[in-house]
Amino acid sequence: MQNVIVPLNAFERVEVLEKGQTSFIKLIASSGAFGIEIRRELFSEQDPPLESMKLEIEQHQLFTVYSAPVELWNANHQLNEQELSTIFEEGKKLGAKWVKVSLGHFSKEQSNVSHLHFILKQHSDIQLFVENDQTLYGGNVSNLKAFFESASEQNVPVKMTMDAGNWYYSKQDIDDALSQLSQYVQYLHLKQVDLENGELVTVPLQKNIGHSWEKVMNSLPSNLVKALEFPIQPKERTKEYIQMMTESEVLL
User: Fold this and answer.
1) Which end of the chain has the least Cβ crowding within 10 Å, N or C?
2) What are the CA-CA distances from residue 45 to residues 16, 17, 32, 42, 221 (Å)?
3) Which residues 6+ apart lie within 8 Å of 152 measured at CB?
4) What does pTM read for this prediction?
5) Span 174-203, pLDDT tens digits
6) Angle 179-195-36 (CA atoms, 0-180°, nearest 5)?
7) How high is the pLDDT of residue 2?
8) Regarding beta strands 4-7 and 35-39, do their DSSP bridges make them parallel or antiparallel, or are they unpaired?
9) Domains of the chain by range and CATH?
């Protein structure tokens, strides 16, 4: 199954900002990717209007995910309704089928999940995904479980993006995360996080027993849509990493 998506933050940030995200569409398509993840934080003056980006993406027959660095629940545990609505409108202009945000400050006692359901009904043509981010609250297994349990109980159509590397930043146990959250995961962000000079850094994937990205990937259904969210340098190696995923072997 062709199920690999390439996010624009996999490439060198300065180059993406200088050339625009649109300039990478052809490369991603020719590398054999199923889709592209457009990043809201990487828009620059080099990018055309969203409607023009949509036409370019459609020309290359790529599935579109729109990722925005927005927290679903604000510091007061209330829904970020205005920002969420704006992101959905941008996603529609872009032709995105999926929109991805982070959890934010969800509270089972104070956050109104039925309010979220009301908003999602107005944008039923786009699937909302919530990702575990690198914060101690939005990447917390218990908080994420409480949110997805509440959403499931109220039949709120929201799914999870599991980022295999972010658990290190949020100081969570990967086995616990897989045990508690696997049933909600429909989109997997693959990255390997190593400790270098006392700091956590994201590094290119390598096939090696014990690497957490492999453990996460092998613990979830093989046909899950996967994103290559790690440094791809040079960018021409994109095809190699896509083959690495689809053939389960490293081509280095």
Assistant:
1) N
2) 11, 8, 28, 10, 39
3) 184
4) 0.94
5) 999 999 999 999 999 999 888 888 899 998
6) 65
7) 66
8) parallel
9) 4-248 (3.20.20.150)
Q: Which residues of 110-137 are buried (b: 16+ CB within 10 A; e: fewer)?
A: ebebeebeeebeebeebbbbbbbbbbeb
pLDDT at res. 252: 31
Percent of the chain with pLDDT over 70: 95
Closest CA to 227 of 245, 209, 212, 247: 245
> What SS3 class is residue 29?
helix
Query: What are the pLDDT digits (tens) for 138-175?
Result: 999 999 999 999 999 999 999 999 999 999 999 999 99
| Residue 146 tokens, joined | 């409480």
Helices (H), the chain: 13-19, 25-30, 50-59, 81-94, 113-121, 141-153, 166-169, 174-181, 212-219, 238-247
**Residue 37: closest CA among 5, 68, 74, 1:** 5
Query: Rounded CA gap, 76 and 73, in Å?
Result: 8
